[in-house]
Amino acid sequence: KQLQKDLEEVKELLTKATRKRVRDVLMTEKHKLELEIKNQPPPKLKDVAEEEKLSLGGYTVKINNYGWDQSDKFVKIYISLNGVQKLPSENVQVNFTERSFDLLVKNLNGKNYTMTFNNLMKPISVEGSSRKVKTDMVLVMCRKKREEKWDCLTQVEKESKEKEKASYDTSDPSEGLMNLLKKMYAEGDDEIKRTINKAWVESREKQSKGDIPMDI
């Protein structure tokens, strides 16, 4: 930048110079500066990234905990961050697209916080979406393009719920119950496993005595 300014000043002086000797000196200096500017190495991408990292300060934490609800017009995402209200407004940034948003909170207690949501359940209005900073909380307001209820926040979440439902939702009620019990047993703690084992043994005993006709 400094070299460019020097070159501009030399060019300006050239337009005012009338003496040949002065003009020759200025022309020599002009060529010298142009050559110096041309031979300057371009800034390395790594250096730019390092500068950006230094400007952020601290290290970056990915936010995983949040809450959300919705109204007819908005989907609202609540992110708890202690002391966020003390930051300058420009330190809390949210970028929206029609099906995503990402949040960056810079230099909060020496750390940076990020959260990214891709594949939102339905399209949102970029212009109508915004963020609000409250006490110990950031509220992200996604303006719905159509006023309709969202069952989930993202497409991935929806697919995950459908897959889970399909694992124990069958046409045979007893089979569905068995799948549900198996899932509870697999994911449960020791107490739940003991309870399910006890119920299983008791049902077997009742069945053997003819008390119940169907194996649960």
Automatic annotation (TrEMBL):
Domain SGS, chain residue ranges per copy: 139-216
InterPro entries noted in UniProt: CacyBP_N, Calcyclin-binding_UBL-bridge, CS_CacyBP, CS_dom, HSP20-like_chaperone, SGS_dom, Siah-Interact_N
Keywords recorded for this protein, A-Z: Acetylation, Cytoplasm, Nucleus, Phosphoprotein, Ubl conjugation pathway
Regions that span the bilayer: none
Localization terms from the record: Cytoplasm; Nucleus
Superkingdom of the organism of origin: Eukaryota
GO CC list: cytoplasm; nucleus
Record function comment: May be involved in calcium-dependent ubiquitination and subsequent proteasomal degradation of target proteins. Probably serves as a molecular bridge in ubiquitin E3 complexes. Participates in the ubiquitin-mediated degradation of beta-catenin (CTNNB1).
Protein's name according to its UniProt entry: Calcyclin-binding protein
